[in-house]
Automatic annotation (TrEMBL):
This is Nudix hydrolase domain-containing protein. Residues 126-277 form the Nudix hydrolase domain. PANTHER family: ADP-RIBOSE PYROPHOSPHATASE, MITOCHONDRIAL, NUDIX HYDROLASE. Gene3D superfamilies: Nucleoside Triphosphate Pyrophosphohydrolase. GO terms for molecular function: ADP-ribose diphosphatase activity. CDD domains: NUDIX_ADPRase_Nudt9. InterPro entries: NUDIX_hydrolase-like_dom_sf (IPR015797), NUDIX_hydrolase_dom (IPR000086), NUDT9 (IPR039989). It holds the Pfam family NUDIX.
């Protein structure tokens, strides 16, 4: 089993003044005894009271239903990893210790569900021939990446599943927001853009669903995602897209897929699956 690494032995996310208690590899799993494990507690003030955030645990008005679709709050509190434990009222990170309690800047206790669209095409030269990698001789794939505002790293244009939303809607909405800046379009332009993507986003291949090794994870809150691949084999449709970074993205571009790319969270391991799926260079 892959250990989480990006949410351990670091300062917390973009808060350089919050340090995680260092957790060595052999003490990540909760089953390893560690009597004096007392990591700091951090829940960012900024999330409290936000409509998309849970209330604090212990608040009389907060009655979550763990490990279930929580109808009262329209929040999916199931985990792709199976049943997670609740200890003293707090959900426990299924992958083990992170050196930080609380929820950090994540809105939900327990799993925080996201969706990641991986939009791909073949890299082509000036005369539109597909480029093969000089060493592996496999075709070079490209995907639409965004640069995250929070830490400047390249990533999939993913985002949180909104209450009541289904994953297929999240995938298209986040792509529109982060790579086409739909949040700043007028109503008419936005419906046209949505319509334009409809067909292309109706066919996808499953890439990954599960825990994300996200730097925002804590002992009591963590990211999970559903990543799907939308591939344009001849590149004719994606050629019509007008890429324009928006919302929490500060850059957007086609990136060459390879093992050398450094990406946010565990996006690189998901991208590897896409490369395998399409028999592309990695
Ligand atoms: C990652 O965080 C997911 O894989 C997804 O890309 C992203 C969702 O969070 P925001 O982009 O909304 O911050 O764990
Ligand atoms: Mg977003
Ligand atoms: Mg996002």
């Amino acid at each position: 089993e892959q250990l989480h690494t990006k949410c351990r032995n670091t300062t917390y996310g973009t808060n350089n003044d919050i340090s995680r208690l260092p957790v060595p590899d052999e003490r990540v799993e909760w089953s390893q005894p560690w009597d004096d494990y007392h990591p700091p507690y951090f829940t960012a003030k900024g999330i409290l009271g936000k409509p998309w955030a849970d209330k604090e645990i212990g608040d009389a008005d907060f009655n979550p239903t763990w490990n279930a679709m929580d109808v009262e709050y329209q929040v999916d509190r199931t985990s792709f990893t199976g049943i997670y434990k609740i200890v003293n009222g707090y959900p426990l990170n299924p992958l083990g210790r992170t050196g930080l309690r609380g929820r950090g800047i994540l809105g939900k206790w327990g799993p925080n569900h996201a969706a990641d669209p991986v939009v791909t095409r073949w890299k082509r030269n000036d005369v539109k021939e597909v480029v093969h990698h000089p060493i592996t001789n496999k075709r070079v794939l490209q995907f639409v990446g965004i640069r995250r505002k929070d830490n400047n790293q390249w990533a999939f244009p993913g985002g949180m599943v909104d209450p009541g939303e289904i994953v297929s809607q999240t995938l298209r909405r986040e792509f529109l927001e982060e790579t086409m800046n739909s949040l700043e379009m007028d109503g008419e332009t936005k419906s046209q853009a949505e319509k334009h993507l409809e067909d292309f986003f109706s066919k996808s291949s499953d890439v990954y669903q599960g825990y994300v090794d996200d730097p925002r994870n804590t002992d009591n809150a963590w990211m999970e995602t559903v990543a799907k691949n939308f591939h344009d084999d001849d590149g004719s449709f994606v050629g019509t897209l007008n890429l324009n970074a928006g919302d929490d993205a500060v850059g957007v571009k086609w990136l060459d897929v390879s093992s050398e790319l450094q990406l946010y969270a565990s996006h690189s391991s998901m991208l590897k699956k896409v490369a395998e799926l399409l028999n592309a260079h990695w």
